[in-house]
Design brief:
Layout (H helix, E strand, L loop, with lengths): L2 E9 L8 E6 L7 H11 L4 E5 L8 E6 L4 E2 L3 H13 L9 E6 L2 E8 L2 E5 L5 E4 L2 H11 L8 E6 L3 E6 L3 H5 L12 E7 L8 E7 L5 E3 L3 H13 L6 E6 L7 E8 L2 E17 L1
Parallel strand pairs: 2-3, 4-6, 11-12, 13-15
Antiparallel strand pairs: 1-2, 1-17, 3-4, 4-5, 6-7, 7-8, 8-17, 9-10, 10-11, 12-13, 13-14, 15-16, 16-17
InterPro entries: Phenazine_PhzF-like
Organism: Cryobacterium flavum
Protein name: PhzF family phenazine biosynthesis protein
């Protein structure tokens, strides 16, 4: 074991401790996969990341992303949080204001400007209709009727999200899913606000497995939802989504479409700086 720089950052909220927390271990090149997974399980956060030297000349750093139970090829709030931690540790953006992150999903550009950070979402690796039997199962899990589900789509971009669209944000906020029925599904639910305000949509993310989890604010899910809703004309090319409301958070995810690419952004705040013996 040795002493390594350690950070915890809050992602997707302008107010610290109201977004989604991320643990970041720096200088992790000599740690094994088993070391990383054990520590990620111990932090008990939705994700923990490990910063390493890049393999590709274009990349500024490489990151490995772990939930409490598995390694992920890509995840959204860990991408922004890792970039923030790397910058705080002495990294710098390129002349274009970009940081290039290397992860298992490839090279991910991260734009940094005026305290706001945004990543270019990687392509969806599975994108299309959900089989009707599974939609019925999801309705039972969510405790709603099948008729309340307006649309459903696979939105796989690392995590295996299934997007579910309801008719209103009020319905999304009122969901009381049965965690015992989730199995290993990863379900993201979205609905529009009826009145004009800061946010146009409310989002919730339910993740099955052990433990069952409602994620506070989810970049990968919002990236997939944005692709789907913009493609189908349900959302404008630029909008803001709220997430984490029922958990007492104030997550705000800013979506924009630029040259065909989805950009997912928000504020990132450094909360804890120190060291970890690992």
């Amino acid at each position: 074991m040795k002493l390594r720089r350690y950070s915890e950052v809050d992602v997707f909220s302008t107010e610290a401790y109201r977004g989604n927390a991320l643990a970041v271990v720096h200088d992790a090149d000599d740690l094994s996969t088993e070391d990383m997974q054990r520590f990620a399980n111990w932090t008990n956060l939705s994700e923990t990341t490990f910063l390493l030297a890049p393999n590709y000349p274009r990349a500024d750093y490489r990151v490995r992303i772990f939930s409490a139970k598995e390694e992920l090829p890509f995840a959204g709030h860990p991408t922004l949080g890792s970039a923030k931690a790397w910058l705080d540790a002495g990294g710098s953006t390129g002349p274009d204001g970009m940081v290039i992150q290397e992860c298992a999903a490839g090279l991910i550009p991260v734009r940094v400007a005026d305290g706001h950070m945004a990543f270019e979402a990687p392509p969806l690796t599975r994108y299309g209709p959900v089989e009707e039997s599974l939609v019925h199962r999801i309705a039972l899990i969510l405790g709603i009727s099948r008729d309340q589900i307006i649309d459903a789509s696979w939105l796989v971009n690392g995590p295996k999200w299934i997007g579910i669209r309801l008719s209103s944000a009020r319905e999304v906020l009122g969901l009381q899913p049965d965690p015992g029925k989730l199995g290993d599904l990863e379900i993201g639910v979205v609905g529009p606000f009826e009145l004009e305000g800061e946010s146009q949509f409310e989002v919730r993310a339910f993740i099955g497995g052990d433990p069952v989890w409602e994620d506070a604010v989810t970049g990968s899910l919002n990236a997939g939802l944005a692709r789907w809703m913009i493609d189908t004309g349900f959302a404008d090319p630029q909008y803001t989504a709220s997430q984490g409301t029922v958990l007492g958070r104030q997550g705000r995810v800013h979506i924009s479409l630029h040259n065909g690419a989805i950009w997912v952004g928000g504020h990132v705040t450094s909360c804890i700086e120190g060291s970890v013996r690992l």
